Amino acid sequence: MLPALVRLLLRYLLLAAGVVLLNFVIPRSLPGDPLSFGAGEGTDAAVPLSRAAKDQLRAYYRLDEPLNRQLGAYLGDLSRGDLGRSIARSAPVSDLIRDRLPWTLALLLVSLLIAAVVGTAAGVVAGWLPGAGRDRLLVAIASALAAIPEFLVAIGLLLTFAVGLGWFPLFGGQTVFAGYGGDPAGVARRALDVVWHLTLPAATLVLVGTSAFVLLARDATVGLRHAPWLVVARAKGLSERGVARRHALPNIALPLLTFFGLRLGTVLGGALVVERVFGVPGLGLLGYQAIRARDYPLLQALFLLSGLGVLATNLLLEIVYLRLETRRGLLRG
Amino acid sequence: MARRPGALFWLGGGLLLAFLAVAALAPLLAPHDPRLSTGRPMAAPTREHLLGTNDVGQDVLSQVIYGARSSLIVAGFVTAVSTALSWLVGLTAGFFRRAEAPLMAGTDLLLALPNLPLYLLVLTLIGASQRNLIAVLALLSWPAFARIVRSVVLQTRSATYVEASRALGAPDIHVIRRHVLPATLDVLPTKLVLTVRFAVFAEATLAFLGLGSGDAISWGGMLNWAFSDPLLFVRPGWPWLVLPPTLATAALILATVWISGGVAVVRSSHTGNERVSRMHRPPGGGSRLYRRTGRVAAFAGRERVGPARPAGGEPIRSEGVQVEARGPAVEQVGDDSAGDGRPREPAPVEADRHG
Q1: Which residues of A are less than 8 Å from B232 in CB distance?
Q2: Between the CA of residue B302 and those of A112, A128, B156, B170, B179, what are the distances in Å?
Q3: Which residue is closest to A44 within chain B, CA to CA?
């Protein structure tokens, strides 16, 4: 029996290899090939590929070579960090992604963190007294939010706060043509401008993301309501708030942590939609534009990166999980 | 103590039926051909065009009516195929040990992938059409429930009544049909409702991202069309382009949510009193529990050799179903098949893959 950590690493290594391989296999195994698509597909909105673009794609996929050479070249390029050149933008894909990554990362991390904290707090409050008025209210709100797709939430916020009230900008990541100046005050102005532009997109992701945390934290809290250590904590004379914070919260932290990692994969999809609605110049908008131009190298890179990114985060969280579990086990045993 | 689904369940059901009727009767109900330009562009609502027209003069009401078709066709086919695949893979992996490792490895890989980037890549490669959309959504949405079905099969397989049946020489196919399959059917309603919701979600989202069917009219596609206009909110008639498809999508999804809530209520009353089962669970096995919680009643109508559920009590799983009924997380249907006492693997968050 291998130690748990080694097994964990092995499993994730296999999964990562699977993602890398899948990224190679998908375009080559689907019906037709990337070049021929669009010939007879009815009224397709996307533009047909130009001759130059087709040549570029053929070179990118190395379709003239045997399959094993294709795989070798693919892995070789990948190991050097070469993700190919974007067809629509004629720039290296890795450069494009590097430019856009900070926007998406900031949007995702900030909103996911807020969602996790707010959602967990609300969930504990709701689950503390199941069936009480505030429990039913919170659960109803969370269920309603969980029931609406991101793009509807985004459109709703946009219509209300940007179009209707005019509090926030309609579009973009920062004001176009704004001169901020290089001095510290200018930097601060720029930061404020960006925050102002990103408020609605982040709010969308928070609204959509919070509900899941609320429901999960609530059910976890309900589950340990009658746990003996909570009775003891109360008997010691701790306030309800103290019981919740010191004794209940640590016990529901683990599943929530795991869930945090799992959310990342879906939030990524959410970012795609949200960036499209609000025109945030992040990876999602890049992806949307890549769909329209059928910029395959870019799409492949986005798929690969998001897949590996989600795996890496999950691995990290599982290692934390493993450590916490071991410690708990020691204490118990 | 069978609880009845509440009024919301019936409201949701009625709403869904109404959408189905609209979809089926679209050619009769729609006042205009949704593809033709039948009026002045960007016209405000008139008697002729009850919801106005879009920027090329197509009738918005007719488009909304035909949009119900796209949503429901995609939802229907995706649900059917995805459910069949979940059960096929889950039963096979759970029942035949040799198939388990490769099938579960594939399932795990699919579960680990971020779904939307995957859909985008595949759909852009094979081209966006309704058929392709259905294929992609169906072929990529089965893994979570395949896991759940497998864990049920694993529990059932070790039950004494299954062992007895096999000892009597029953062929595999008989054991599966008579004993294993019925045990898994408990999670079927949940799967159906969740997948319908997931498909409606996904169809609208993908269409909104420009990957809807090129030739079929859909709500997401209408919104995509509207948002492709950089001057959308400057135009006076923009609410007529944005609100009808938005509200229609929201209503359909709401209907499925209400239905799933009702299904969960009924199921949680079927699977017995949770509090009792938790507190009085006998250490050794569940048959006493089984009698005590009166679950027999729930299965009285069914013909069965043994107890409806694996001994060992804990039905799969009122909690999990309640969780997802209120929101997007199915998980808790844990998978302790490894049996090494480790905590459950991070449970697949069903509804995320599923909507």
Answers
A1: none
A2: 47, 39, 17, 20, 12
A3: B214
